[in-house]
Amino acid sequence: MLLQQEPQLRELRIFDLHLGPWLEELKTGPVQVTAIQGDVTQAHEVAAAVAGAHVVIHTAGLVDVFGKTSPETIHEVNVQGTRNVIEACVQTGTRFLVYTSSMEVVGPNIKGQPFYRGNENTPYEAVHRHPYPCSKALAEQLVLEANGRKVLGGLPLVTCALRPTGIYGEGHQIMRDFYHQGLRLGGRLFRAIPASVEHGRVYVGNVAWMHVLVARELEHRAALMGGQVYFCYDNSPYKSYEDFNMEFLGPCGLRLVGTRPLLPYWLLVFLAALNVLLQWLLRPLLLYAPLLNPYTLAMANTTFTVSTDKARRHFGYEPPFSWEESRTRTIRWVQAMEGSAQ
Ligand SMILES: NC(=O)C1=CN([C@@H]2O[C@H](COP(=O)(O)OP(=O)(O)OC[C@H]3O[C@@H](n4cnc5c(N)ncnc54)[C@H](O)[C@@H]3O)[C@@H](O)[C@H]2O)C=CC1
Ligand SMILES: CC(C)CCC[C@@H](C)[C@H]1CC[C@H]2[C@@H]3[C@H](O)CC4=CC(=O)CC[C@]4(C)[C@H]3CC[C@]12C
Q: Which ligand lies nearest the alpha carbon of 174?
């Protein structure tokens, strides 16, 4: 999207632990595209990649709420990695830093308190225990506190954090997992979450556009945007996590069985705890990381939706992809998977 939408762009550096073949397709235009295989936990690698950059968009992160990696690794990547990016900007003189934070920085909290169509100023007790939200909250705090630090050359660093709600769209691994689970169950998924529980979702293309826009506007509106957080939002409907997924999985042949959860909540709690025990017992043999665990169950059962226009007011954000376009593009992606699955 940067290559398509940013006329001022002269060089695009992509720093990632895992570089994919898709990068080769990006190298065909007038902009110099530099792919750098590196680890954000290695400060020297980050500094080498950042040196000379005008703006850094730091979106690398370990998104793990399924127990696939250790809490230490999550902290190392999400917190120390972010610290390394900030120090690289300061040491090499990069003045603008955009960070991909998360709704998880706010909630849902461990008390299961709903956040109903809230905004960046809505009072809410952000209390976390899980390593992932803890790491995102700490990383965001580091980014916001770094706003105004002097970088090499003596000018101030300008930082901004974007908080997407649940991202969906092409490449969404969890959607892929739901789809394959439905195929294994004969085209059916069984409702586990009450339809009344709203969970915020945002299309990946709109999240990407907000990042591009902030990267462009941060220099010109530094006094207003510096040190600020913005929820990433669009016109995706407010629905339960499962009902929202069915907007894409339904047209691909899956059916959600039940108008209300088929199992009582206490049984889901028991099964989630059993999954934790099985994960621990099986770890020496294999990675068992199902969708259902105490954290995902609590998250899915707690309303968390946003209603805000702060990004529009501060830097003119309007989601380029309508709900209909976002839905169509995601369905096409699942259908392409379906083709590969058959
Ligand atoms: N998926 C979601 O619903 C949401 C994601 N986010 C945030 O968006 C960002 C991107 O996440 P996703 O695209 O969902 O996940 P993803 O796993 O698709 O992307 C993360 C990227 O970071 C890279 N990475 C991981 N460890 C690294 C390391 N040590 N060094 C360098 N690169 C590393 C991965 O290779 C991957 O390309 C993350 O910061 C995440 O916390 C925020 C809100 C919602
Ligand atoms: C009871 C069911 C088996 C639960 C299935 C749904 C869960 C896997 C997902 C429900 C809410 C999701 C999280 C939410 O969208 C917020 C997130 C923000 C991020 O920064 C990363 C992803 C996530 C934690 C997301 C993960 C899957 C859910 C827990």
A: 2
